[in-house]
Amino acid sequence: MFLLKSLACLVLLAVANGQFDPNYASGRSGMVHLFEWKWDDIAAECENFLGPNGFAGVQVSPVNENAVKDTRPWWERYQPISYKLVTRSGNEEQFASMVRRCNSAGVRIYVDVIFNHMAADGGTYGTGGSTATPSSKSYPAVRNCELVGLRDLNQGNSYVQEKVAEFLNHLIDLGVAGFRVIDMGGEAISKSEYTGLGAITEFRHSDSIGKVFRGKDQLRYLVNWGTAWGFAASDRSLVFVDNHDNQRGHGAGGADVLTHKYKMASAFMLAHPFGTPRVMSSFSFSNTDQGPPTTDGHNIASPIFNSDLSCGGGWVCEHRWRQIYSMVAFRNAVGSDGIQNCNQIAFSRGSRGFVAFNNDNYDLNSSLQTGLPAGTYCDVISGDKIGSSCTGKSVSVGSDGRASIYIGTSELDGVLAIHYSTLLVLGLLLALALGGQAKSKSKSKKNKQKEAILPLAESCKAANCKLPDCRCSDAVLPRSKFQGKENEIPQFVTITFDDAVNAVNYAQYELLFEGLVNPDGCEAAGTFFLSHEYTDYVRVNALYRAGHEIALHSVTHGDGTDYWRSADVATLKMLEAFAKVDPKRVQGMRLPFLQISGNNTFVAARRLGLSYDSSWPTQQFKDPAMWPYTLDFKSNQDCQIGPCPQASIPGLCSMIDACVYPPEDDVDELFYWMLDNFNRHYLGSRAPFGMYLHAAWFSRGRNYFGAFKKFINHLITYPDVYFTGISRMLEYVKRPVLGAPFKDCPELPEAECRAVQCRVQKMSTGEERYMSVCDKCPAVYPWLDNPLGQQQ
Q1: Residue 17 neighbours by CB under 8 Å, 6+ apart
Q2: Nearest residue to 119 (alpha-carbon basis) of 148, 84, 87, 143
Q3: Which stretch of 2-11, 67-76, 605-614, 745-754 has the lowest confidence by average pLDDT?
Q4: Residue 528: closest CA among 499, 566, 568, 507
Q5: Which of 71, 348, 358, 715 could be a cystine partner for 364, CB 3.0 to 4.6 Å?
Q6: Which Pfam families would you find in this protein's record (predicted)?
Q7: Virtual torsion, Cα 464, 469, 474, 475, nearest 10 deg
Q8: How far, rounded to the nearest angstrom, does the alpha carbon of residue 251 sit from its chain's CA centroid?
Q9: What is residue 452's predicted lDDT score, i.e. its pLDDT?
Q10: Contacts of 481 (CB under 8 A, 6+ apart)
Q11: For the segment 79-136, what is each residue's pLDDT rounded down to a tens digit?
């Protein structure tokens, strides 16, 4: 199924096993077959839904010119007459655009190719205007690409091989990630003849899963699901519940393809680690030959999207059912963890996810081992996690990992699924930047700290405050000689995230920065303000080694003014011990809830050796925009969450953390809203443009991720826009120049990390916690008073 560069490369690829790699973006799994969708609609779906919801790929209908048949049945796409890229789905330009846009959204494209045969006999007119007479079967017809129909092409002919290879290589050059081969087994041609060439579509999976969920086989038989059922090896099997053929009673599959309990079977497929899963997304039909919805009987109609994310206008869109897209997120969250705690109705995926099924005629009501850490989780089958609440069932897991699981026979889905990303106590703790104004938390007396008594800062005068050591809080250009040359000042964009790094948001971060290169040839980078609780330190190390800036946030998200001083010291030690981050490279901090505490925040930052703070928000938007400034003198910035500093803190830079409300959840509105804000800087003083985000911001709207990715992909095309971490941007602010801001790319840190999975005890509560760290597990769960997790 997967990528072959050309037929001549088969032997080399087989040695490297590259033909079994689906070429997915990191942290993603599972594809969807958007059957008979138009290319423009697929591109929009990648940006607006598939990318943000973690889908890894799309299988598209055949892309080359096909015969036009009366009544326009779906199967006319499988009657090719040329290798022109013109079909009812669109032309070559639209196809190429779709591939680019989907790849940018982290979604790979897989093409259903037909090179075994061409169209059937009879005079034939094609979707691209070609005409052919397949019945002639003459060699000149082949040479002119009027290739014969359902009679086989002569694959032993070198010219035919060349034409097929040219077609496939052209698709690869356009950016597709793979192609398709099918087998049901029990025929003259066996799948075993092809498993050395790539992954195969495993029809036996569809047939067998149908038998189980129809009740012909018992659910407990699934305990050895995989090769024991006669399937090809896991890495060589593309698995599915149904496909476009057997969904309509065509081709292979027989009577055991599911129509009932479809969601339950799909959930099992996505929850189980076997194979590479593919979800079907189809349209309604009253006869098995019926083609897709049209506007006039010929032109394919676009899907209509309802407020609950489902589709209308004749489209079914199974991939938009919550029970399916939530299980794609489940699969991404559990990663490669194996099955544990397996019994006849449930299993866990390591310590990351748990799923249960009820396919019986009586209620399931049992205490089951989930393998998950203690906490309350949202069942992604019955509802959605929104912030810190769940619209469906909540599941409480005890300190022993067990939970009371109930699935009634009257429940239509028959499935329950939870994973670590649905832990409700990890809800949206902080609304930063684009997500809305942060709210100050009330503090108990024990968390209050006496304000440091320091001399009040004087008003800033340019004569007394000069670069590189001092800058007033204003919008003045960095150098007076830059006046009138604003368009030669490099425009910096600083993308920042705070809170834990985990498998789900790490995949989003990888996708956001994938392929982004600044005009000077250096890799684009962002800044990550790290908190300890629930962080995957191995992934922090990966971000660090990729050139992203790592900065301080918190250990527990406490907001007391005593708390954060010890928390930042502890976080610094944890980053060094568990993620191999050099403390000397940690230059900044952002406090939980943006709760600064007057002078104390900034005095402590200087004592830690930090060069900047990014905790002071503003809601004043003036033109021209302010530049970052030092706290040597009195600040002119508005004080949103007090108390704000009044003293002089020489040399410490303060970022301007903007808090604003986004518009409606629409890709274009969000894109142009961000672009308008960017243009305040780019068309004005060229002050650095900061985007201050919480890790959970993308989950607040279904179009947020797609709009954000579209925005940064747009900016990276500018010849003078640079995506960097905050500390590198501040290097420029201290020593500004016109044109290219730096002579060299930053040196990447050497911090090799041997990933270790740890299960340690949290001493304050006795509960077990799971950690992913570099090289060596701590003895106990690290905390404020024991940041290295030493045995005490």
Answers
A1: none
A2: 148
A3: 2-11
A4: 499
A5: 358
A6: Alpha-amylase_C, Polysacc_deac_1
A7: 120
A8: 35
A9: 45
A10: none
A11: 888 889 999 999 999 999 999 999 988 899 999 888 765 666 555 788 888 876 666 5
Question: CA torsion, points 525, 619, 695, 595, in degrees to nearest 10?
Answer: 110
* 727/527 Cα distance (integer angstroms): 9
Sole residue written with tokens 């239509």? 412
Q: State both tokens at 633.
A: 């003198």
3-class SS at 294? strand
Contact 120, 149 (CB under 8 A): yes
Contact, 61 vs 77, CB < 8 A?
Answer: yes
103 vs 740: CA distance, rounded Å: 29
Paired tokens of 570: 């502890």
| Long-range interactions of 567-571: CB distance < 8 A, separation 24+ | 567/784, 568/604, 568/605, 568/608, 569/608, 569/787, 570/532, 570/782, 570/783, 570/784, 570/787, 571/530, 571/531, 571/532, 571/787
Instruction: Report the DSSP pairing between strands 649-654 and 629-631.
Output: antiparallel
* Mean pLDDT (whole number) for 648-654: 89
What residues does 80 pair with on adjacent strands?
A: 66
| 704, 706, 709, 711: CA torsion to nearest 10 | -80
What pLDDT shows up at residue 478?
87
**Residue 194: which residues within 8 A CB-CB, separation 6 or more?**
181, 183, 200
At CA 158, angle to CA 156 and CA 164, rounded to 5?
Answer: 90
Rounded to the nearest angstrom, the gap between the alpha carbon of residue 545 and the centroid of all alpha carbons in its chain is 20
Report how far residue 787's alpha carbon sits from residue 468's, in angstroms, rounded to the nearest whole number: 35
Beta strands in 444-526 (DSSP E): 491-498
Name all domains of the chain by residue range, CATH numbers in brackets: 7-332 (3.20.20.80), 339-426 (2.60.40.1180), 433-734 (3.20.20.370)
Q: What residue has token string 């067998």?
A: 208
- Evaluate whether 192 touches 228 at the Cβ level (below 8 Å): no
d(Cα 368, Cα 346) in Å, to the nearest integer? 8
Asked if 751 and 544 count as a contact pair (C-beta separation under 8 A), the reply is yes
Model confidence band, residue 492 (pLDDT cutoffs 50, 70, 90): very high
Q: Strand, helix or coil at 456?
A: strand
- In the predicted model, what is the mean pLDDT of residues 144-158? 54
527 closest CA partner among 604, 598, 612: 612
Q: Has residue 273 got a pLDDT over 70?
A: yes
State the Cα–Cα distance between residues 386 and 376, nearest whole angstrom: 14
Return mean pLDDT, the chain.
81
Q: Are 519 and 719 in contact (CB under 8 A)?
A: yes
Cβ within 8 Å of residue 610, ≥6 positions away: 552, 586, 587, 588, 589, 652
Angle, CA of 776, 780 and 781, to the nearest 5°? 95
The helix (run of H) or strand (run of E) holding residue 15 is helix 10-16
Q: What is the pLDDT of residues 343-384, one digit of tens each?
A: 557 888 887 899 999 887 788 899 999 988 778 899 999 998
